Amino acid sequence: MIGAVNLSAGYGGTQVLSAVNLSVGAGEFVAVIGPNASGKTTLLKTLASLLKPLSGVVYLDGTMVSKLRARQIARLIGVVLTEQLRPTQLTVFEVVALGRYPYTNPLNTLSETDSREVLRALADVGIEHLAARRFYELSDGQRQKVMIARALAQEPRVLILDEPVTYLDPRARVEVLLTLKRLSKERGVAVIASLHEVELALRVADRLIIVSGGRVALYDSPEEFVARDGPELLYGLGGETAFSPELMSIEFRPPNNGGPRIFVVAGGGSGSLVYRMLARLGYRLSTGVLHAGDIDYYLASLLGGRVISEKAFHPISPEKMQQALSEARDCQAAIYTSPPIGPLNSENRILAEEIARQGPPLIVFGNAVIEGAIARVDDPAALPELIGRALEDGLEARPAAVRR
Amino acid sequence: MSRRLDRLFGMASELPKTNNIHMLLLISVPVTPLFIASIIFGSYSITPWDALMAIAGRGTAESSLIVNSIRLPRALAALLGGACLGVSGAILQALFRNPLADPYILGVTSGSSLFLALSILTGSVLGLWSPFSPYSLYLAAFIGALMVVILMVALSGVVRSTTTILIIGLMISYLAYSLTSILHVFVDIEKLRALVYWMMGSFAGARWSLLSPGIPVLAIFLFTVVLLCKPLNVLLLGEEYARSMGMSLGRMRMFLVAAAALPVSVVTTLSGSVGFVGLSAPYLARQLTRTSNHFAIIPASALLGATLSMTADLISRLALQPIEIPVTAVTALFGAPLVIYLLLKGRGVQL
């Protein structure tokens, strides 16, 4: 559909990208990701023929774009730019109808086909109800949808969008991305969109283009990218941030500042919320006994916690139990996250009871009943305060622990 | 727009097209009465009947002279000149995507009058061309206007700030003013009077000899400018969007620059620097029609420009009778506060 061969791109003689080779087919949703100022916009504008390539060619359906006239290109490529528009009193219908520019006569009379395409574009983006509204009255998310509908009214084969969701609130962000994804399938349009949100890109895109250090790499799937290079390539993550290929998420590790250490008895995903909360509040994390491959296992490791783990689908062994208990005793507080209990992890419940008896103060989060726990809560919002109280109790209880 | 499709999607009634036409009709109402008033009122009042007889060629010698040689060309100059300034302002505002753009503020008018003065001076000193022939006047004014618009377009590519562009425009005006003043020294009293006209702005100097080559140009311009409405609409979204929708920007910019400069040069030749009409007419047009669609804005700007300039002309000759005030002194009374208001409102102003 659209492709580039040996493309070099840049502004006014300054080369930003070189040796770009890629090709995107009909119906594909391709996300372009890369750090700020890496050349994403340059790449997109060059593909859209808004910038002349320094060398190499862009081709559309096997035709070199440089051989096409502006009007012909506009019938093949629709563009949505990142810049905020000056407010205009044009109605939504009028703005979308501007997309018929390469089809209409100089008096801009809309033929039946033109009107039909405008209405189809409005409907495809789901903004028919806004048609008579004035553009300046709309929210950012609505404006972005109008600009997408306008690009669609060009009946393009390729849709190129520069950071289409950057200025949008989270909900509008997801809406616009899903709309684009749906359009790529329903209309068979090749969609190429640069995104700042790596996690969204990994979840929504069919393929990925990574722009970094003057190079452009095309991956056939987000999974391929994650498996081969990982986002370290992109953002040089490390230290306090970490990326999990299994969860496709970026996590923030708590700084290792010797804060209180908290033991969490979890498993089966019941610990995720508590782990992130502890990391955010700056506590150090120990947890167990987790089965390898459990979501809790990946997340706790990612957050830099000490994880006592058992082989996947094996019953928890007495050694691991012992190890977990002694780790828990070194912590200042403990939380039991009420994991689902079955034949392979029933020891975790016993572990919690042991901690309540001989370890630091234990809080139960969820519906489990553990004898000797200092509190039980269902509301996660109540946890931070309880942890604070448990830590104070732990300090008072310390002489007793020493006596033992 | 197909009715059937509209009904299908149930929104035909909400599309504001018909409102625009009603508003345009409403805006055109004052034009004719003002034109008649321009012929009737003045230091010597003439009854409508006498004016009609004079135009028909059956009036008294006195009324015939006043109506046909003075009032009619003056009214026509104010009508067409105002319409053209309004259109030129609308084009400049879309081109610069700036509601403060106006031929007077951007210095286009001054550039035009500077070249007029230069042409008159060099023409009369060197004797290479007849300095007061309408064609050399129009040509000189057009070159001057064109050069300033091109300069401002080039600058707007480098300078992004609205205020900077406006200040540069003002400075170009001062520069032109100063050069024109220096040129005065070299011109004898007779010619000086003519030059002062061009500097201050007044429709009183409009004569058939100057008008007759200008009128067809202005009339053709006013009818062909409708062809620019489509690209002007696309330019509302910015130059890159315009290009992405298939507009060849370079060529279109040339057309627009010429289309903005041409009417200004004709008006300057006819009546000197008439300020603020090009600023106010498009602004009022957008306020009244509540749209940015140039298919409505351009005709509305023309009608409102004509209304404003004819009103200003009437005030200029009637307010302090028998003394005439320069037109720009009148237009500045509403134009200058509008500039200040728009500056204060900043980016919130819709284009």
Provide an overview of this structure.
The complex is a heterodimer of chains A (404) and B (351). In chain A, helix 10 links the parallel strand 13 (261-265) and strand 14. Helix content of chain A is 37%, strand content 24%. The model of chain A is unreliable at 398-404 (pLDDT under 50). The longest helix of chain A has 21 residues, at 383-403. The radius of gyration of chain A is 28 Å and the shape is elongated. Chain A is an alpha/beta fold. Chain A folds into 2 domains: 2-235, Rossmann fold (3-Layer(aba) Sandwich); 249-397, NAD(P)-binding Rossmann-like Domain (Rossmann fold), CATH 3.40.50. Chain A is built from 14 helices and 18 strands. Helix content of chain B is 75%, strand content 0%. In chain B, helix 6 (108-126) packs across helix 7 (134-158) and helix 6 (108-126) crosses helix 13 (249-271). Chain B is mostly helical. The model of chain B is unreliable at 1-16 (pLDDT under 50).
